[in-house]
Amino acid sequence: MEKYLSQLNEAQLAPTLQKDGPMIVIAGAGSGKTRVLTYRIAYLMSQGVDAFNILSLTFTNKAAREMKARIATIVGESEAKNLWMGTFHSVFAKILRFEADKLGYPSNFTIYDTQDSDRLIAAIIKEMNLDKEIYKTKQIRSRISSYKNSLITVKAYFRNPELMEADKMARRPRLGDIYKNYVDRCFKAGVMDFDDLLLKTNELLTRFPEVLAKYQDKFRYILVDEYQDTNHSQYLIVRALSDRFQNICVVGDDAQSIYAFRGANINNILNFQKDYDDVKLFRLEQNYRSTKNIVNAANSIIDKNQTKLDKIVWTANDEGAKIKVNRSLTDGDEGRFVASSIFENKMQNQLPNSDFAVLYRTNAQSRSIEDALRKRDIPYRIYGGLSFYQRKEIKDVLSYLRLIINPADEEALKRVINYPARGIGQTTMDRLVVAANSYGKTIFEVLQNIDQVEINVNSGARNKLRDFTTLIESFQVMNQTANAFELADHVVKASGVIRELNKDSTPEGVARMENIEELLNGIKDFVEGQKEIVDATASLAEFLEDVALATDLDADKGDADHVALMTIHLAKGLEFPYVYIVGLEEDLFPSAMSMGTRSELEEERRLFYVALTRAEKQAYLTYALSRYRWGKLIDSEPSRFIEEIDEEYLDIITPIEERRFNPMLDADIFGDPEPNKVRFKKPVQPTFKKKGAPVSKVEKKVLPASKNLKPVSQTKGNTNLFDSNLVVGNMVEHLRFGKGEVLKIEGAGADTKAEIKFNNGGVKKLLLRFAKLEVI
Ligand code: ATP
Ligand code: MG
Q: In 562-597, which positions are buried (b, 16+ CB within 10 angstroms) versus exposed (e)?
């Protein structure tokens, strides 16, 4: 441990060695906050704190995995495996699954992603005969989401005249009814949406003191990274869990709070010292990530914000190159500039692609960058777009699997009941929904009793419904014995999905088939890691949960060498030697939607600060004079953020191509002494700018992290394989489930199974051939 502690500076050591009590580390970007959390966990373990008693909450599951890997090198892999680490959503989904019955949910509840939520909300709006131009699905979803994250349940909503009045004023008087309908339907379907995972955790901890006590006792040490971006719901969970031992360590940077639009509350970090007694406050000031130029430029930007905590950030790193600012004529040119610059940097310095990141404000901007990178044969990967698991063909197959696990899952059923086409039309579907609602049953229950319920479908349709029900039931039977891979493999064939996709020999069709294969491979990987668990349902359910909750970054195994393309929101906490921040134009960044108030503009500025501070060696800022947006070519002006940076840190360049394209912009015309450079503040040529060109105000806010995960094998490791002289009553330890007692042994030889009650409360039946158990 000593050896590792020497890798921290003194300011970092202080919070690392502060073992007990509430503490907060507030510090600027790149100063080692995440590093402190990592080493602190290792230190706690070296001081005898059991890994099972440590809970660490991170912004992505990838961050958690990296932290765990680092800790493993210090304390050893088998110990590090026992740590509870992950995003709020993934950690609390596990706990909820365990405690589901208390809240009236089945433990095999499935999870709706935003696409599923949208579909259900749209269906409800239609069923209620509301005007979908006024009741816009995504707006309604975001409203419901913000209610949930503020812990405003349906009941609370209808008790609050102000909220109802506000929705009435917004011409949406039925919002409460939609909310109620949505919540009821999710509950009946045995599903939770993302916000439920936090809301229901709060409900669990509030309504059941004994459950709260159990987890308080379990999580004696709690650590939270990126605390500035927690929402109210997350805040309350952390408060409740840390209330007993008060060993709570949060780290964050108010200057990097960028999720207010999703309900993040910067006051959580500002008020931390009021929430606990005797809070120790630590500050870190030395940045290890970036050059002096980048650190100073970033400081000069964030200085423009009025609402901020005073912080010092300095670095002992090299001066480094100035930040390069590039102007292009169009977004296409911008893409070509980025691609050729990456190409040149790579060639000149012999760098891997993974040293480069292109960051943008909105996902739509990736297209022109992609085109240019493709032309240059530079491999890239887009993070946070439509993720693998949201592609239609993948969601269709996953919906079959979800339906097997949880036949009440309404959205899953709707997706597959007539895919591949079975002649079950929309009218029949609508009637099923009506019948289900009037009987208070799930749609699948109606299907199973199709001959008993009153429903207006003819005998032909009835037969088709019966066939579908039988098909799903046969999958359920198979699920009793087969593993997730065998089942999925069978489902894609028996359901007709493969046959359907095979009909399409276009490149897109072939790609869809390949995606299905990739999905099956993913499930196989997962099963390999799960082999020891006898109960295959659990493993399929777990797989589906991982899929639903993984963020797009999680899919990155770090093996392929590619340029990373992502929104700035998603880049939080990451670092790259070369960073290109593109689309620095007024109305794009800062976004047109975020210039109404000072606080909105300040959030955009913090976003810019986050973007710039991702760069280690070199940052590029680029903008175009015109850009295709919403199908139209729109003139644009450079972002105010460029001008806000002290000019001494900037190097204004304009590529030769642009001068060739447009001699009017050639430096010579302006009498510039350096022909290769065009000064940034020079007036833009009027021919390229229509005065007051209208800019549409309909920019969508981008949700950063979407889901896409290749499941990770969970049980690799250097553990002892058990030779089967295990007896009832033995105490054993399992890598993932912890310590437990053997309740029962059954079977013989290669089929010997043990039923074990683990101290975390779960009972699992394990196949000893695979189980990684040690007798203790
Ligand atoms: P952000 O605010 O962006 O999340 P952070 O404060 O979490 O940043 P880290 O990511 O922990 O900062 O650290 C930034 C970089 O500096 C990392 O590459 C880290 O390994 C390195 N670093 C941090 N502290 C030290 C140190 N004492 N010696 C050497 N390198 C360090
Ligand atoms: Mg960090």
A: bbbbbbbbbbbbbbbbbbbbbbbbbbbbbbbebeee
The dihedral over CA atoms of 330, 331, 332, 333, expressed in degrees to the nearest 10, equals 60
Calculate Rg over the CA atoms of the chain.
28
Q: Which of 81, 311, 614, 764 is catalytic?
A: 614
Cα-to-centroid distance, 590 and ligand 1 (Å): 28
Is 256 annotated as catalytic? yes
pLDDT of 692: 38
DSSP 283: E
3-state secondary structure of 532: coil
Residue 415: pLDDT band (50, 70, 90) is very high
Cα separation values, 227 from 70, 198, 532, 567, Å: 21, 16, 37, 20
Cβ atoms of 22 and 246 closer than 8 Å: yes
The closest ligand to the CA of 613 turns out to be 1
- Give CA 132 to chain center in angstroms: 28
614 CA: nearest ligand 1 atom: 3
CA of 573 to the centre of ligand 1 (A): 9
- Cβ distance 677 to 667 under 8 Å? yes
Cα 747-752-758 angle, rounded to 5 deg:
110
The 8 Å CB, 24+ separation contacts for 420-429 are 420/495, 420/496, 420/497, 420/499, 420/500, 422/464, 422/467, 422/468, 423/460, 423/461, 423/464, 424/461, 424/464, 424/465, 424/468, 425/461, 428/457, 428/461, 428/465
Q: How far is the CA of 717 from the centre of ligand 1 (A)?
A: 28
- Residue 34 annotated to the active site: yes
Q: What pTM, to 2 d.p., does this model score?
A: 0.81
Helix H or strand E encompassing 207 = helix 194-207
Rounded distance, CA 609 to CA 299, Å? Answer: 8
Cβ 433 vs Cβ 189: under 8 Å: no
Strand 763-767 with 773-775, pairing: unpaired
Strand residue runs (E) in 274-407 = 280-284, 286-287, 314-315, 323-330, 356-360, 380-382
As assigned by CATH, the class of the 110-189 domain is mainly alpha
Ligand nearest to the CA of 31: 1
| pLDDT value of position 385 | 66
Structural element, H or E, at residue 651: strand 650-653
Among the four given CATH numbers 3.30.230.10, 3.90.1300.10, 3.40.50.300, 3.40.50.880, the one describing domain 1-103+199-284: 3.40.50.300
Does the structural domain 314-385+558-652 have CATH classification 3.20.20.70?
no
Per the annotation, binding residues for ATP are: 27-34
pLDDT of residue 38: 96
pLDDT in tens, 138-179: 999 999 999 999 999 999 999 999 999 999 998 999 999 999
| Dihedrals phi, psi of 78, to nearest 5 degrees | -65, -35
Q: Is the ipTM of this complex over 0.90?
A: yes
Options 2.40.50.1020, 3.90.1150.10, 1.10.486.10, 2.120.10.30; CATH for 388-549 is: 1.10.486.10
List, for residues 754-769, the tens digit of each pLDDT value.
888 887 666 777 777 6
99, 116, 167, 226: the active-site residue: 226
Cis peptide before 407 (omega within 30 of 0): no
pLDDT at 472: 97
- At 436-454, the pLDDT tens digits run 999 999 999 999 999 999 9
Residues near ligand 1 (Cβ within 6 A): 7-9, 12, 27, 29-35, 253, 256, 288-289, 573, 575, 613
